[in-house]
Amino acid sequence: MIRKLTEIDRKPLMALLIKEPALNLFLIGDVENFGFEQEFMELWGEFDPVDFHIKAVLLRFYKSYLPYAEGPFDVEGFAALLRKDKDVEMISGSSEIVKAFGRIMSFRKEKHLYFAELKEMNAEIYSGLSAPGTIKKATISEVNAICALTDGIQEFESSSEGSRKSLHQTLVSGTGRTYYVECQGEVVATASTAAENSMSAMVIAVATHQAYREQGLATRVVVQLCADLLAEGRSLCLFYDNPRAGAIYKRLGFQDIGAWSMMYF
């Protein structure tokens, strides 16, 4: 049985999600930060017919969907919800789960990434790269300056207006933070978190200005960002598809824990 979830389902839902807290970072963060009664967000759960515990969940966050299941689940039942949404743009999640939708639905494009987690920083890297006083924490006043950098990064897909709106909302809501390095009044390196929750956070938007690359600036920012989150008792997660970038993250202490897929309608 699949039905829409409400506040009364919080405890059994979290019991499911914390079984794999890293992979469920977005789900946990959205429930903790926004609850169940939001126009831009909905949650459905599939209940086990024997003991009625939640065995699978589907999140809608604006025009994107994210499924999670601890084992076999009603793919067709969740797919029916997606088909009813005329505005749906994508579905993402653990590759094993998302690929189940790919067998019964058509997509125009798909992207697959490595998923890595950091629980403990490489102490040698941290002591060698940290530079107290040179890395700043952004406020909403720095949104335009930071986005002026990220808008020029080809790998980033968000529009100029969309990136500013997203960063502003994240900083205001406290669901993420951004650190940056400035040179001659210009932001030249930055890294952010998103989906911060009580257990973890996602590292995103790591970028360096073209003229300042090969100096380790982005690595310094990521190191400081991760060190601060770890000191708060949270783990860090990130996606990557570039083996060179993956090697850098692994030097910091990140370890691959799975694969992540995004399927675009």
Task: Please tag this protein with its features.
twelve-stranded mixed beta sheet; 34% helix; globular; 2 domains; GNAT_acetyltra_YdfB-like; alpha+beta; 265 residues; Aminopeptidase
What is the H level of CATH, i.e. the homologous superfamily of the largest domain? Gcn5-related N-acetyltransferase (GNAT)
CATH C-level of the largest domain: Alpha Beta
The rough form would be described as globular
- Measured between the Cα atoms of the first and last residue, the distance is 26 Å
Largest β-sheet summary:
12 strands, mixed
Give a structural overview.
There is one protein chain. The protein has 265 residues and is α+β, with helices and mostly antiparallel strands. The protein folds into 2 domains: 2-106; 116-258, Gcn5-related N-acetyltransferase (GNAT) (Aminopeptidase, 3-Layer(aba) Sandwich). The chain is built from 9 helices and 12 strands. The protein has a 12-stranded mixed beta sheet with strand order 1-2-3-4-5-12-6-11-10-9-8-7, sandwiched between helices. Helix 6 (143-150) packs across helix 7. The longest helix is centred in the C-terminal third of the chain and has 15 residues, at 217-231. The chain is globular and about 60 Å long. It starts with a strand and ends with a strand. The mean pLDDT is 90.
